Structure formats: structure tokens, C-alpha cells
Amino acid sequence: GEGLPRPEQTRIMVVANQKGGVGKTTTTVNLAASLALHGARVLVIDLDPQGNASTALGIDHHAEVPSIYDVVVESKPLSDVVQPVPDVEGLFCAPATIDLAGAEIELVSLVARESRLQRAIQAYEQPLDYILIDCPPSLGLLTVNALVAGAEVLIPIQCEYYALEGLGQLLRNVDLVRGHLNPSLHVSTILLTMYDGRTRLASQVAEEVRGHFGDEVLRTSIPRSVRISEAPSYGQTVLTYDPGSSGSLSYLEAAREIALRGVGVHYDPQHAHAGG
Ligand code: ADP
Ligand code: MG
């Protein structure tokens, strides 16, 4: 990797948007791989019962595999379920199995139901630069657990009609969690995904999002790319599936921008170079 500055403390980023199909999982795994290729140690926590992040990282997550369900519901240590991601040094994954589908209901009657993931992360002793949490497309107790555990919210926004619709609900939940459970929580990063610069719609949506969120929006956006959507079926991120593709370069660049912001270094896209 090219050795970007590392954060002083582990940055815990919650990738959330209650809309499905906006690029949460794609962003989680590709950004995580990019940060690892830049030299960071990164853990992906798959908090979606679908287990798409686990699949995309090539991590076994059939029903018997120790998983994030065991951590959140059964209070198992996180270290019991974390697996190294094949082919990407410094990248790890806590997989989700289908068990997690029941967790929303099971959590309701458990003590400290909102802070079980936070406790597990606090007890995890391996050194990490980043933890990226891939949330399900809902605002239930699993997403609340992620919002209590993290400090930063990363919202992927698809450059489509109704891109901002429903975001108010997510932002209100972030405010609620900040007010009651996690004072450090804030929306730190907005990433425009599936951006098609040839369409007027995409640039209009991008403009609207930048007008609404300002500096939180990364300068780098992620293009719509077939290579990005093909990679998961090979159990790979686009970074290993097609390293030179526009999708790879854009995620590497987004990772660089996030890393530089984290240490307060001005990001200059004019000198942008995407290389691993
Ligand atoms: P979410 O996790 O928010 O439901 P996903 O990350 O699973 O969304 O993405 C939804 C679909 O869009 C997937 O089929 C994925 O492969 C595809 N996709 C995501 N980002 C891109 C992109 N930049 N270019 C092309 N396809 C993409
Ligand atoms: Mg997903």
C-alpha cells in the first residue's frame, strides 16, 4: 500500500441508509479493502442478515459459522468470530449468518439491548485503524447497535430520483442516539454512488446533496461500473477482481480522502492519484 496517515484511534464508521440497494454493502467492502491496501488494519462487521458483505469478501458464512449473531445476542467475544479476508492483507471480517434475521426480535428482551455491539467492540483487543459496519436496510435494533458503537456515520447516496427521501428519518435517529446513548455520534461522510456523469439527473442529484450536506460530501464519487457489480459473485472486492478499473480507482481515492480528512489534512483532488 502507499501508506496513508493512520488515525490515532480506531475510527468506527457506520455505513447506513435505510433504503436498500443504494450501495451500503458495496461501499463497506470496497472502502475497507481500499483502506487495507493503503496500509491500514480494517475490520468489516457484517450486520445485515443477508450476509452480502461476508459473501463479497469471500468469507464462509453458512449457518454453523461463528458469527456476529453470537456476539450481539449470545455475548460471545468478537475475537471468536473474526476471520481474515483472503487475498487482502490487514482486512478482517465478522460475518453475518442467517441467524441474525431473528436478532431484531431477540434483542428486544435482552439487557443493554442497544449497546451490545459497542461492548463487544470495546472488549476487542486487536489493534485496528478502522471498523466499518454494514447495516441492514432498516432502522431497527441492529442499526441502533451500530449507531451506539460508532462515532461516524457514512451515508451512501445513490444518484437517482428520491435520493434524499427517507434520509430525514435516518438523520433523526442519529440525533436521538446522539442525545441519549452516544454523544460522539455524527454524520461525517456522504458518498455519492452509482454516479453516471453523462446524465443530467445524476449531476442534479449530486448538486442537491452537496447543497444539503456541504462538506460532509466526499469530493470523490463512485461511478456506476459493471466491474463493481460483478466482483461479489467471485467472492472478491473490485480491488482484487479488477485493480485497474474505474471502480477500484474511485474507491481507493475515496479511501484516501477519508484517511486524510481523519487527520485534518487538506484533500486536494487536483493532485489526486489513485494507486495501491
Ligand atoms: P445496499 O447494501 O445498500 O442494499 P448494495 O451495495 O448491495 O446496496 O448495492 C445494490 C446493487 O447495486 C448491487 O447489485 C450492487 O452490485 C450494485 N452496485 C452498487 N454499487 C455499484 C456501482 N458503483 N456500479 C454498479 N453497480 C453497483
Ligand atoms: Mg447491503
TrEMBL record:
- Protein's UniProt name: ParA family protein
Domain of life, per UniProt, equals: Bacteria
Task: Using the record's annotation, list all stretches that form the AAA domain.
Answer: 11-186
Q: Which residues of the full protein are shown?
A: 72 to 347 of 359
